Each structure stands twice: as C-alpha cells, then as structure tokens.
C-alpha cells in the first residue's frame, strides 16, 4: 500500500467526540499515523503477520492502520470507555477481524500476563503534562516489558536526553527515526490559538 493511500484510509477513522484533558486525548493525525506505520512496516518489517499492541489506543487510528497493513493481530489498550466505544465503531466500519481491544490502566500492566506476548508495541502515549508527570515513561517501561522485538513511540523532543538516560539504564537501544512537528488541535477550551505546534520525536526502542 502506498503512503498516500494509507493516509487517506486513516482519514476515515472517527476521533474523540468530547476529548478528556486529563487523559491527554488528542488523536494522532492521519498524516503522522500513516508516516509512522509506513516506516514501521516498510523499513523494519515489524507489522505484517506480527502480534502488535497499541498502548493508549484511543479511538484506534494506529491500531486500524496496523490491522490494514496486515498485522497478524493488533490489540489496543485504553482506560477510557468513551474512546473504546468509538474504537469499536471504527473497527466495525473498517470490517477488520485482526483487531481487538482491552480496557485497562496501562500503568498497571507491567509484570502482567502480557509480558513478552507481543512482537511490536506502537503508541502515542500521554506526554505527562496534565498533573500526570512521568506517565510517558510508565507507558514506555510497560511497552518494553510487553514487546519482544521493538517499541515505537512519540515523545516530546525536549525530553530526549532524559529518555536516552533511561534507555541506557534499561539497556535498550534508542533510535530517533524522525523529528515531527506535532499539530495539537485546539480541542481544549484553554487553548487560545487554533492549534499549538510541539516538537516530537518518533523513536524506535529495541533490546540490545
Ligand atoms: C495522545 S492520546 C493517543 C490516542 C490514540 N493512540 C491516537 O493515536 O490517536 C493518549 C491516549 O491514552 C489514553 N490514556 C491516558 N492515560 C491512560 C492510562 N493510564 N491507561 C490507559 N490509557 C490511558 C487516553 O485515553 C488517550 O486515548
């Protein structure tokens, strides 16, 4: 599948109707989601026929993209039932059978039955800017406990040094694949501008 076809496919995915600020519910844009998945698929061959987890899956844009690219199975994990209801609707509209969902707090999954049960983990985690500082690293640690091959994640560029230190401590290889300008839509009332750009790293983590 071509990148532009994947992007137009992901434009059909419904997003949050009433996003919850405290859960950092902003969707990955179809453009960024398509670029991420296309790279994971074409450069690293980490999607086709793989068992994939999507942590903080929200309405499912990354899960659906992975399923469309022929993941063996993609399982989305999210805490919020409103988001998961939209996820289910998307799944039905796309008529996908290689996709499933689990409702849970991702931070409680470490050392769980899901340890090393996935080839690949993909995620756009909460960045930890809403009285939940450190949740991005909780997500990352959990993702690393679940994946056997690689974790692909988005992180604020301003936290790169901190993440690199943690990756060294955890003996994990960290590769910044791309630097993105992430366009946060003004979906929250306190945003005065139409959108806010933040610098974000697209990172691949793998065991050394
Ligand atoms: C930045 S959004 C990304 C949504 C989706 N993956 C996407 O790419 O459009 C972060 C998601 O993490 C979820 N979330 C926040 N805290 C969570 C937690 N502790 N456990 C599970 N999911 C959580 C939110 O509900 C939200 O759907």
From TrEMBL:
InterPro entries, sorted: DNA_methylase_N6_adenine_CS (IPR002052), rRNA_MeTrfase/Polyamine_Synth (IPR051720), SAM-dependent_MTases_sf (IPR029063), Small_mtfrase_dom (IPR007848)
CDD domains cross-referenced by the UniProt entry: AdoMet_MTases
Methyltransferase small domain location: 42-144
UniProt xrefs under Gene3D superfamilies: Vaccinia Virus protein VP39
SUPFAM superfamilies membership: S-adenosyl-L-methionine-dependent methyltransferases
Molecular-function GO terms, alphabetical: nucleic acid binding; rRNA (adenine-N6-)-methyltransferase activity
Family: Belongs to the methyltransferase superfamily. PrmA family.
Protein name stated in the entry: Methyltransferase-like protein 5
């Amino acid at each position: 599948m071509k990148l532009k076809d994947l992007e137009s496919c992901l434009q059909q995915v419904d997003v949050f109707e009433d996003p919850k600020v405290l859960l950092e519910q902003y969707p990955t844009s179809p453009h960024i989601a398509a670029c991420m998945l296309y790279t994971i698929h074409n450069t690293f061959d980490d999607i086709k026929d793989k068992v994939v987890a999507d942590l903080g899956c929200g309405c499912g844009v990354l899960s659906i993209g992975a399923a469309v690219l022929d993941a063996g199975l993609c399982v989305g994990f999210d805490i919020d039932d409103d988001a998961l209801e939209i996820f289910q609707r998307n799944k039905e509209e796309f008529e996908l059978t290689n996709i499933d969902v689990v409702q849970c707090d991702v931070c409680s999954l470490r050392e769980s039955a899901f340890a090393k049960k996935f080839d690949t983990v993909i995620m756009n985690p909460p960045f930890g800017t809403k009285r939940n500082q450190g949740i991005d690293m909780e997500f990352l640690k959990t993702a690393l406990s679940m994946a056997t091959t690689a974790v692909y994640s988005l992180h604020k560029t301003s936290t790169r040094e901190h993440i690199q230190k943690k990756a060294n401590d955890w003996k994990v290889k960290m590769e910044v694949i791309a630097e993105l300008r992430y366009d946060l839509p003004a979906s929250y009332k306190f945003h005065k501008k139409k959108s806010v750009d933040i610098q974000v790293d697209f990172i691949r983590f793998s065991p050394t």
